[in-house]
Amino acid sequence: GQQVMQIPQYQHVQEGEDFTTYCNSSTTLSNIQWYKQRPGGHPVFLIQLVKSGEVKKQKRLTFQFGEAKKNSSLHITATQTTDVGTYFCAGQGNYQLIWGAGTKLIIKP
Amino acid sequence: NAGVMQNPRHLVRRRGQEARLRCSPMKGHSHVYWYRQLPEEGLKFMVYLQKENIIDESGMPKERFSAEFPKEGPSILRIQQVVRGDSAAYFCASSPRAGGQETQYFGPGTRLLVL
Q1: Which chain B residues are within 8 Å of A100, Cβ to Cβ?
Q2: b/e for B29-53, b at 16 or more Cβ within 10 A?
């Protein structure tokens, strides 16, 4: 069946360093969505990418959708403590979203 | 416009009891999804429902778990004869239309603890 692999599982960064998470699908996706879950919270929608090669920015966050529409990335520039949480990608399935396992962003003390 | 509502927010059950989790979707949303999240793990899809219909229950355990979304009232996820391994956060999400084209709006979750 369809699978979305997301790496890394965890990323420890110093505040001010960059953070990147990658998603790779076993099949071509019609779209991909990104969500953020704060510790103890629930997933919150960030963005949806639809077009091949699409790049979208939200302040310090840059989202990319690969040319083949099988992979995507989220890059955060100059991380801040408010960025802490788990970032999930989710690709279009037949009836529902196929979720990556998430990448947990941890800021080193 | 109220968001997705889930109750209770926390639920404690002893082994063998039943757990009932409720989800009221956002106003105007007729598609509901249930997910389970174990500590430090990702979201696991359980079931997708529309009003009075189960569309996809491929993620639901075959035994003890059931879900419904009646014509009136909230969606219910029911777990019979709970075991310790059922302890998790259960999230409900809703969308206005079908499938992955639509953003899913999540409720705050129900944290189930089985003693």
Answers
A1: 42
A2: bebbbbbbbeeeebbebbbbbeeee
- Which residue among A43, A97, A101 sits closest to B100, beta carbon to beta carbon? A97
Q: Per the CB < 8 Å rule, is B100 touching A42?
A: no
CA B67 from centroid of its chain's CA atoms: 8
Backbone phi, psi, residue B101, to 5°: -70, -20
Residue A107 CA, distance from chain mean position: 17
Read off the pLDDT of residues B44-93 as tens digits, 9 standing for 90 and up.
Answer: 999 999 998 999 998 999 999 999 999 999 999 999 999 999 999 999 99
Mean pLDDT across A4-24: 97
Closest CA to B90 of B8, B17, B27: B8
**Which residues from B are below 8 Å from A94, CB to CB?**
56, 99
Residue with tokens 């110093």: A14
Query: Nearest C-alpha of chain A: how many angstroms from B7?
Result: 14
* Residue of B23, B43, B90 to mutate, testing the A interface (most A Cβ within 10 Å of its Cβ): B43
Structure token digits, residue A95: 């009836």
Hey, which residues does B106 pair with through a beta bridge?
B93
Q: Measured between alpha carbons, how far is B9 from B17 in angstroms, rounded to an integer?
A: 18
Identify which of A79, A26, A80, A34 has the alpha carbon closest to the alpha carbon of residue A56. A34
Tell which of A9, A48, A87, A97 to mutate to test the B interface (max B CBs under 10 Å).
A97
A81: phi then psi, degrees, rounded to nearest 5: -60, -25
pLDDT of the residue at B102: 75
